[in-house]
Automatic annotation (TrEMBL):
It holds the Pfam family Cas_Cas1. The keyword Iron does not apply. NCBIfam families: cas1, cas1_ECOLI. One of its GO terms (biological process) is defense response to virus. CRISPR (clustered regularly interspaced short palindromic repeat), is an adaptive immune system that provides protection against mobile genetic elements (viruses, transposable elements and conjugative plasmids). CRISPR clusters contain spacers, sequences complementary to antecedent mobile elements, and target invading nucleic acids. CRISPR clusters are transcribed and processed into CRISPR RNA (crRNA). Acts as a dsDNA endonuclease. Involved in the integration of spacer DNA into the CRISPR cassette. The keyword Oxidoreductase does not apply. GO terms for molecular function: DNA binding; DNA endonuclease activity; hydrolase activity; metal ion binding. Homodimer, forms a heterotetramer with a Cas2 homodimer. Keywords: Antiviral defense, DNA-binding, Endonuclease, Hydrolase, Magnesium, Manganese, Metal-binding, Nuclease. InterPro entries: Cas1, Cas1_I-E, CRISPR-assoc_Cas1, CRISPR-assoc_Cas1_C, CRISPR-assoc_Cas1_ECOLI, CRISPR-assoc_Cas1_N. Its cofactor is Mg(2+); Mn(2+). This is CRISPR-associated endonuclease Cas1. Its EC number is 3.1.-.-.
Length: 319
């Protein structure tokens, strides 16, 4: 192979799949994920033998692994190489335990997140920006404190619940999340919990794919998924809450919530929206976004000059 052909065949950053172009999520339960000569597939033993379903890993943002799933190392390596995030969840996609993403991302956005999180004033500004994004149709005075914004949020959510309760002719609704008595909950609560967890998985995938930390939240704190909850809250009133109320008379609210949510992710192109909102929240002036496109994959930190190129021998010349 000539040098020119080698250069054409070599992967570049521009050729790598972008999380904003990925479709959505895939929930798996009671299957074994393996790699064969064709690709990554989910297989299950039936009375007719082993049945296989091949997974479009390169076009998925996130794969949710529910109970009873197992995955082989070759399949895991392929999924990671495609930039698809793996999230371990509880039954039905409820609860998120852990996430795994590719190590090929730069730290540009992580450094921007940590810088903002560590500065009390900037941290407060980002928290306020999150609330304003949720109440974009309301005039919010600049002088409101974070406690007042939390109170405004509570009133907004209660009003939203009341409107949807009346719209769907539901006698009474009260938000309830009881893991110990899961099956005793009404269809709206079941659908909302399942839809929210899928939303957490997608947001988790977007955060990890940008190289950010899911633990460093600006509104939530104290949990490894604090930043996931921050970002997911931006879309609940528009996506998961109306979806859950529309399933108030469903006999399978959890399954239908996941299925319809996948359709909405594709229809609304929610993944690019999440990525853009994340970048805008952390860097409204888009400085980091521009630097992220042109930065080297690895650099060295210097307290005086800033970033310097890696892969360079900085020893003094021995003349």
């Amino acid at each position: 192979m000539t040098d020119a052909r080698k250069r054409l065949a070599a992967p570049t950053l521009a050729m790598l799949p972008r999380v904003a172009d990925s479709l959505s999520f895939l929930y798996l339960e009671a299957v074994r994920v393996v790699q064969d000569d064709t690709g990554v597939c989910a297989q299950i033993n039936t009375q007719h033998g082993i049945e296989r379903t091949y997974l479009p890993t390169a076009s998925l943002a996130c794969i949710l692994l529910g109970p009873g799933t197992s995955i082989t190392q070759p399949a895991l390596a392929t999924i990671s190489r495609h930039g698809t995030t793996l999230v371990a969840t509880g039954s039905g996609g409820v609860r998120t335990y852990a996430g795994l993403t590719s190590s090929s991302m730069t730290t540009a956005w992580l450094e921007r997140q940590v810088t903002a999180w560590a500065d009390p004033e900037e941290k407060l500004d980002i928290a306020k920006r999150m609330y304003r994004m949720r109440f974009e149709d309301e005039d919010i005075p600049d002088g409101l404190t974070l406690a007042q914004l939390r109170g405004l949020e509570g009133q907004h959510v209660k009003t939203h619940y009341r409107l949807l309760t009346a719209q769907h002719s539901i006698k009474r609704f009260r938000r309830n999340y009881d893991r110990d008595n899961w099956d005793s909950q009404d269809p709206v609560n079941l659908a909302l919990s399942a839809a929210n967890t899928c939303m957490y998985g997608i947001v988790h995938a977007a955060i990890l794919a940008l190289g950010c930390s899911p633990a460093l939240g600006f509104v939530h704190s104290g949990k490894q998924h604090a930043f996931v909850y921050d970002i997911a809250d931006l879309y609940k009133a528009r996506v998961t809450i109306p979806l859950a109320f529309s399933l108030h008379d469903s006999d399978r609210p959890e399954q239908q919530a996941r299925r319809r949510l996948r359709e909405q992710f594709k229809l609304l192109r929610l993944m690019p929206t999440i990525v853009n909102d994340l970048q805008h929240l952390l860097d409204p002036d888009q400085i980091t976004r521009t630097a992220h496109r042109t930065a080297d994959l690895v650099h060295l930190w210097d307290p005086i000059t800033g970033s310097v190129p890696a892969g360079v021998n900085y020893a003094e010349p021995d003349w």
